[in-house]
């Protein structure tokens, strides 16, 4: 059971004290308080766990601090959608809003290499009105002898350049909990010129200790990649680990599944799961066409497979695109062959906008159908 308290309720009020006293003394029930900071108000949610079957929803709703109660299923308690659950999705971080109806594009370098390339990338983003990017500093590599990323050494100049070009959010993968501190320390020292979204890569989707460490902080939102060889349910549970530790500002990223059946693509493109994730959970959904497709192959229609895959995700309602670009792919230290080129950025953004608008129009068709059926 979930009790949603009145918005902006004071934690030192008599109503809150009485309500918590009642809930904390329910036999066999443990209580977990979760704060949600929305754009306009702060919501307090109280999760009742354990022996909750016999609890009466009306009794909980009669408590002075409770606005309404929701009976929640065991799956994805915090991030999931439950019956009669009208809770909103999404969050705002560093002036950028992420939810299940809007769209943000994170074009950038798979891996940070030299300042000149980061500069060119960010300049192109600024010229095209973009405020988000991706920049890999800590790279999880299959081969221990491959370039592992510049690590904390590159953070100061990457963050400074981001600030200079008006970048608000950088998606940056971390592979160890100590990286949170490294990022936070560096941003703090620089006066927070930009923001970071902590990315959990597909190799770490079920690294539960890493998830718990990231979930314990709420300064940075999280981009969680789907595990490449596990079920969707298992990956969504991994997201719930973050929320259960206290951080529900999570975006779920589809990036393809590892199977021979995906060939000639690097992974089996799984963007048909965009609407499924939106139905099962309240998380905004990201697609990563670069790591799904993994090449610059082009169809006879002249459009790159990466662009087609992006379109498939966005037209199905994706809320974020994470995509590799590089000014000189032949010089890239990681994933050069799948990178899009700077001169392709404006057309790519136009294509994405077209698909996002089309998604909105598609919804209208089915809304009309529903209306005419109920007339
Ligand atoms: C990446 O986004 O740089 C990356 C390594 O992706 P994935 O974890 O999906 O392989
Ligand atoms: Mn990569």
Q: Would you give an account of this structure?
A:
The protein is α/β, with parallel strands linked by helices. It has helices spanning about 15-25, 55-60, 115-125, 155-165, 180-190, 210-215, 230-245, 275-280, 290-295, 305-315, 345-375, and strands at about 1-5, 30-35, 40-50, 65-70, 90-95, 95-100, 105-110, 130-135, 170-175, 195-200, 220-225, 250-255, 285, 320-325. The longest helix is centred in the last third of the chain and has 30 residues, at about 345-375. The mean pLDDT is about 95. Phosphoenolpyruvate (PEP) binds near residues 110, 201, 202, 255 and 288. InterPro entries: Aldolase_TIM (IPR013785), Class-I_DAHP_synthase (IPR052899), DAHP1/KDSA (IPR006218). Keywords: Transferase. It comes from Marinobacter azerbaijanicus. This is 3-deoxy-7-phosphoheptulonate synthase.
Summarize it.
The protein is of the alpha/beta class. It is built from 11 helices and 14 strands.
Number of strands: 14
What's the overall geometry? Answer: globular
Overall structural class, as computed from helix and strand content, comes to alpha/beta
Please work out how many helical segments DSSP would assign: 11
User: In terms of quaternary structure, what is this?
Assistant: single chain
Question: What does the main sheet amount to?
Answer: 8 strands, parallel
Hetero groups in this structure are:
phosphoenolpyruvate, manganese (II) ion
How much of the sequence lies in strands comes to 15-25%
Task: Give start-end ranges of low-pLDDT stretches.
Answer: none
Pattern of helices and strands: EHEEHEEEEHEHEHEHEHEHEHHEH
Distance between the termini: 36 Å
Q: Please tell me the overall pLDDT.
A: 96
Order of strands across the main sheet: 7-14-13-12-11-10-9-8
Q: Kindly provide the radius of gyration, computed on alpha-carbon positions and rounded to a whole number of angstroms.
A: 22 Å
Helix content: 25-40%
Keywords: Transferase
Protein name: 3-deoxy-7-phosphoheptulonate synthase
Pfam family, one: DAHP_synth_1
């Amino acid at each position: 059971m979930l009790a949603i308290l009145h918005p902006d309720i004071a934690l030192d009020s008599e109503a809150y004290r009485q309500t918590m006293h009642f809930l904390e003394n329910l036999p066999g029930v443990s209580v977990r308080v979760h704060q949600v900071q929305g754009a306009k108000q702060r919501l307090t949610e109280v999760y009742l766990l354990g022996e909750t079957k016999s609890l009466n929803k009306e009794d909980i709703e009669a408590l002075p601090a409770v606005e309404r109660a929701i009976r929640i299923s065991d799956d994805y308690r915090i991030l999931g959608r439950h019956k009669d659950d009208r809770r909103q999705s999404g969050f705002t971080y560093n002036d950028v809003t992420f939810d299940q109806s809007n769209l943000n594009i994170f074009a950038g370098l798979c891996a940070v290499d030299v300042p000149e390339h980061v500069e060119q990338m960010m300049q192109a983003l600024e010229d095209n009105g973009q405020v988000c990017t991706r920049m890999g500093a800590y790279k999880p590599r299959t081969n221990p002898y491959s370039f592992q990323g510049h690590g904390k050494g590159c953070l100061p100049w990457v963050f400074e350049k981001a600030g200079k070009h008006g970048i608000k959010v950088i998606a940056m993968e971390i592979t160890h909990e100590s990286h949170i501190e490294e990022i936070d320390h560096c941003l703090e020292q620089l006066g927070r010129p930009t923001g970071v979204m902590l990315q959990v890569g597909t190799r770490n989707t079920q690294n539960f200790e890493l998830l718990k460490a990231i979930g314990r902080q709420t300064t940075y939102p999280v981009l969680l990649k789907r595990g490449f060889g596990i079920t969707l349910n298992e990956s969504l549970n991994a997201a719930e680990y973050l929320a259960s530790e206290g951080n529900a500002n999570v975006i779920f990223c589809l990036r393809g599944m590892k199977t021979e059946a995906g060939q000639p693509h690097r992974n089996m493109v799984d963007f048909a799961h965009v609407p499924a994730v939106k139905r099962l959970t309240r998380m905004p959904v990201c697609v990563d066409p670069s790591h799904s497709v993994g090449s610059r192959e082009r169809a006879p229609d002249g459009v790159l497979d990466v662009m087609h895959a992006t379109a498939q995700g966005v037209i199905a309602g994706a809320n974020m695109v994470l995509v590799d670009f590089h000014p000189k792919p032949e010089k890239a230290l990681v994933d050069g062959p799948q990178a899009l080129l700077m001169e392709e950025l404006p057309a790519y953004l136009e294509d994405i906008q077209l698909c996002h608008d089309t998604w909105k129009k598609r919804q209208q068709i089915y809304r009309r159908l529903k209306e005419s059926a109920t007339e």
